[in-house]
Amino acid sequence: MPQSQRDVRNRISAVRNIEKITRAMAMVAAARVRRAEQRIEALRPYANAIRRMARQAAAEAGSVPSVPILQERDEVRTVGLLLIAGDRGLAGAFNSNIVRAGVAAGSEHTAAGRRVVYLAAGRRVASSLIFRRLDPTESFIGFTDRPGYADARRIAERLMAAYLDGEVDQVEVFYSGFVSVITQVVRRETLLPLQRATVLESEPSEEPPVGATPQRRVIPEYEPDPAAVLRRLVPDYVEISIYRALLESSASEHGARMTAMRHASDNAGELIQDLTLQMNRARQAEITQEIMEVVAGAEGLR
Prior knowledge:
Layout: H1 5-61, E1 78-84, H2 94-111, E2 115-121, H3 123-131, E3 138-140, H4 149-164, E4 170-180, E5 183-192, H5 226-301
Parallel strand pairs: 1-2, 1-4, 2-3
Antiparallel strand pairs: 4-5
């Protein structure tokens, strides 16, 4: 059934309002992604240094019974998966990519005979896991737009407590790594135990480049001893790693939302053009119909 000129005009008005909203959301996301990118750039050198120091101290200390969090399990029976995404949608496949990666990893561990425990950072992740009947044991929500260090500390304390209490034997983190405004990469990192921690690509390599002249390695001295340093350093390592993942995810979310809203605005513009053409055709059809009625009336009066 062909639409009237009024119906098409109402549709154009509705789509134009949607276009205004999506353009505004794209502008807001563009401003936020820049601030988030600056926070990441400021944190990365410090985070890399903390992670490198923790690995070096653990290697020098060897087995440290006095630091329970460094005790590696003989067998990994339970794995904790922390999935970090957003509290809101309208960001393309940003949230669903993290959920798919986490669920796929959980299926791998389950197939290997391990029990999987899910933890969610972000309202969308928690709701998606519940929908899949994979209820998370803990959900952290309400801060993904602008995460703070206190939020990372709260998550880190929960993960460390789960590891120390024997609830999990290994902790993995899934989040969107920020590469650029239009490029985000799903990352999977092993956080605990420290001996199996993932080395990030952005961390400086301790090995000399191929062909370079080997240099003498400086052996650090720990005061009072490596065990005491690790007792203070490992919690910072976990907190900084979580905080970095939260910032990377926040910047990725804003970048994904900016891209999605720009595409939505472009699609709305194309739809407005199509509807305008349709309205013009409807107007021409109405005019033609009126002319035919006038002609028919004139012929009847003869």
